[in-house]
Amino acid sequence: MATQFYLTLPSNSSMAYFQNNTVANFRVKLTETIVLPSQWEVALTELHYPHTWSTLKRGVQQTFLYKISSNPYQTVVLKETQYSSIEQLTKALNAGMSKETQTKVKFSYNRSSRKGLVDVKHDTTVWFTGELATVLGFDQDTY
Given phi > 0 = left and psi -120 to 50 = alpha, else beta, which region is 98? Predict the structure, then answer.
């Protein structure tokens, strides 16, 4: 046997043997047994995984509140969905506010710092639910 070799294990290669295989959890039947006569080092050189997790917990209402001047707090409830990116989430946050409010509060995301940005104009306050603050990169105690 060679001193090194690659073994590719596609998730759909043994469906006849393992019908319950999924992309994220699978077993593979090799065409022949591999016998390693001594100690070997093994390395995972490539891994593909699907993006199947939610940005926010399902079943938990995600909201943010904002207050402009002495007006009462306004609440924006986010649609429960799987946001494909933080950018998509910030677009949903912006879309949840009236056009007038969008001139006072603007959400964006900085890919370099991996932090959410909130541009809040004078005399405006914003408050998030804890998880929403965390997803956007804010400490839960500082807004």
Answer: beta
